[in-house]
Amino acid sequence: MSITCTDGSTFEGSYRLVTTLLDARRYPADRLVCLYHERWEHESAYYALRHTILHGRVLRSHDPAGVEQEVWAVLALYQVLRRTMVQAAESQPGTDPDRCGFTVALQTARDLLVCAEGVFEQGTGEIGRRVLSALSPARRGRVSTRKVKSPISRYAERKLDGRPDASKTVTSTVITLLPPPAPEPALPTTTVPQYVGPGQSSNRMTRVLAILQAEPERLWRSREIAELLGDATLVATYRQLARWTEKGMIKRVRTGRYAAVTRETAPLRDLRKR
């Protein structure tokens, strides 16, 4: 994916979307990619339930049955208002339901209930008319890096992924669909019996060291090493690499990545005696 912002800045990123919608004709990949950008819509539902409807108030009931009744009442109200907003948007073809304001719909419903007017009006009624008269502007594409808001979080403040610190408007988005990678070769389900002995373990260590030293700048994955050896499971390879790392024979650069140990020439000791 390549994104261009209003100030001319660009950045690229690669993403892998995991989905159970495997029918490419019914669910084209490009449509799923566009839909993925609306994944945070459920956060709006949580905000509407907690702040817009309840104003941050806690439920009043002190027993499980009463709490359940209140929760269902709030959810029913939320669902009715959302359905009314969608119906109002569908009455004007081409109108995105995201432009309908939930606060407008809720306040209109309260006014109608207090005044006892138009509560049973057919169609979207007064709620739909007020929502359509106060549509929000079309949502603009924006991009910014993800930041940690909590001051006591143990994670980094921001993610160094190339995205801008401040929110910027996106002018164009180019999505390139890549073919799925070739399936990785299957690893053995059980360890070869000859591997158990100490001699075989030493032989594996020699082979692994030779592999890593052949390309000292490369960061090898555990699976890649296991595939080259081909005589033990991935779990057994993990254990072997962990032991050899503790002994200082190889080094772990980061999680799941290993490299050869570079042997630097030790400085000559001063052998002069007093």
Counting H and I runs of at least 4 residues, what is the number of helices? 8
Number of domains: 2
Which overall shape is indicated by the principal axes computed on the Cα atoms? elongated
Q: Strand tally, please?
A: 7
Output the helix-strand order: EEHHHHHEEHEHHEE
Helix content, binned percent: 25-40%
Report, as a whole number of angstroms, the end-to-end distance. 69 Å
Outline the low-pLDDT stretches: 194-199, 265-274
Q: Provide the β-strand percentage band.
A: 5-15%
Mean pLDDT over the residues: 80
Largest sheet: spatial strand order: 2-1-4-3
Keywords:
Arc Repressor Mutant, subunit A, 7 strands, 2 domains, alpha+beta, 8 helices, disordered C terminus, 4-stranded antiparallel β-sheet, 3-stranded antiparallel β-sheet, single chain, 274 residues
Description:
This protein has 274 residues and is of the alpha+beta class. It folds into two domains: 2-174, no CATH class; 193-260, Orthogonal Bundle (Arc Repressor Mutant, subunit A). Helices cover 40% and strands 10% of the residues. The chain has helices at 29-36, 41-53, 64-90, 102-115, 125-133, 198-214, 222-229, 234-246, and strands spanning 2-5, 10-12, 142-143, 168-174, 220-221, 250-254, 257-260. A hairpin with a 2-residue loop joins strand 6 (250-254) and strand 7 (257-260). The termini are far apart.
